[in-house]
């Protein structure tokens, strides 16, 4: 599942992930376990409401690296 972050279409970052969820264009959301709860709270709630699977990644640094960016990422999403 994590390898798909490297190859499939995705969005990274809270604003982009939230926008994609609201547009019904997300199949899976990835959330870093060490992200601040206030940052990911709305994403978790939207995923629950729309029955979107959440995959947890150990660290924000690891999630950023999996997404191919040089900064930490609290969340990312695979697009449909």
Give the DSSP E fraction (strand runs of 2 or more residues).
Answer: 25-35%
Task: Give me the number of helical elements.
Answer: 4
Tally the beta strands: 4
Percentage of residues assigned to helices: 40-55%
Ends distance: 14 Å
Structural class: alpha+beta
Low-confidence stretches: none
Model description:
This protein has helices at residues 4-7, 14-22, 37-50, 60-66; strands at residues 10-12, 26-32, 53-57, 75-79. Helix 2 (14-22) packs parallel to helix 3 (37-50). Strand 2 (26-32), helix 3 and strand 3 form a beta-alpha-beta unit. It has four helices and four strands; from the N terminus they run H-E-H-E-H-E-H-E. The model has no long low-confidence stretch (mean pLDDT 95). The longest helix has 14 residues, at 37-50. The two termini are 14 Å apart. The chain has a four-stranded mixed β-sheet. Helices cover 42% and strands 25% of the residues. With 80 residues, it is of the alpha+beta class. The relative contact order is 0.32.
Features:
single chain, 80 residues, alpha+beta, globular
Ordered list of secondary-structure elements with their pairings:
Layout: H1 4-7, E1 10-12, H2 14-22, E2 26-32, H3 37-50, E3 53-57, H4 60-66, E4 75-79
Parallel strand pairs: 2-3
Antiparallel strand pairs: 1-4, 2-4
Short description:
Helix content is 42%, strand content 25%. It is α+β, with helices and mostly antiparallel strands. The protein has a 4-stranded mixed β-sheet with strand order 1-4-2-3.
